[in-house]
Design brief:
208 residues, mainly alpha, globular, lactoperoxidase activity, heme, disulfide bond, peroxidase, Secretory_peroxidase
């Protein structure tokens, strides 16, 4: 949501008008919280190093299934990451392999070229190297090709318990869109505040 028509955010989001993706109705009426602290993020969002078990555990806390988790991970078809969030995959993966062997070699080299060691941490890399400005199922095709940026992305294909769903979403955009809509609606019903909890903000960017 962009509140000010003259802010930098609107200029940066200019291309969002053509990001594509599924259309669905969003339920209204969620109350806003009265606490907003960066320290509360840890433990509530998955880390880029998570494996499937860790991902499932975190999503299950919010009554989301493995299918929901895989579908919501598809949001990584958009956005970017700073180099330090995945540098371990291209420079210090393990004692036996400097580069994560699940990475496509050409993609790994592209990442090293874009993110040399000790690089400026402000450099950002597209989460989806193929269609970074389109909401589509290419994210899953990237995983099949070894082009998942985070460990938590690529494990969705390398882990046998999730691989079939990734293959399905990679080949059937309608299946992905349907699962994504279902998961987003469930996510919107997580942690809903009722009664005197929270508030309805007069200004979305600040507490009342």
């Amino acid at each position: 949501m962009i509140q000010s028509p003259t802010g930098d955010a609107e200029k940066d989001a200019e291309d969002n008008l053509s990001l594509a993706g599924p259309l669905f109705n969003v339920q209204l009426g969620r109350r806003d919280g009265r606490v907003s602290q960066a320290s509360r993020v840890e433990g509530n969002l998955p880390l880029p190093t998570f494996n499937v078990i860790q991902l499932n555990t975190m999503f299950a806390r919010h009554n989301l299934t493995q299918l929901d988790m895989i579908a919501l991970s598809g949001a990584h078809t958009l956005g970017f990451s700073h180099c330090n969030r995945f540098a371990n995959r291209i420079y210090s993966f393990s004692s036996s392999s400097r580069v994560d062997p699940s990475l496509d070699p050409n993609y790994a080299q592209q990442l090293m070229d874009a993110c040399p060691q000790n690089v400026d941490p402000n450099i950002a890399i597209n989460m989806d190297p193929v269609t970074p400005r389109t909401f589509d199922n290419v994210y899953y095709q990237n995983l099949v090709a070894g082009k998942g940026l985070f460990t938590s992305d690529q494990v969705l294909f390398t882990d046998t318990s999730t691989q079939s769903t990734v293959n399905d979403f990679a080949n059937n955009p309608g299946d992905f869109n349907g699962a994504f809509i279902t998961a987003m609606r469930k996510l919107g019903q997580t942690g809903v505040k009722t009664g005197n909890q929270g508030e309805i903000r007069r200004d979305c960017t600040a507490f009342n």
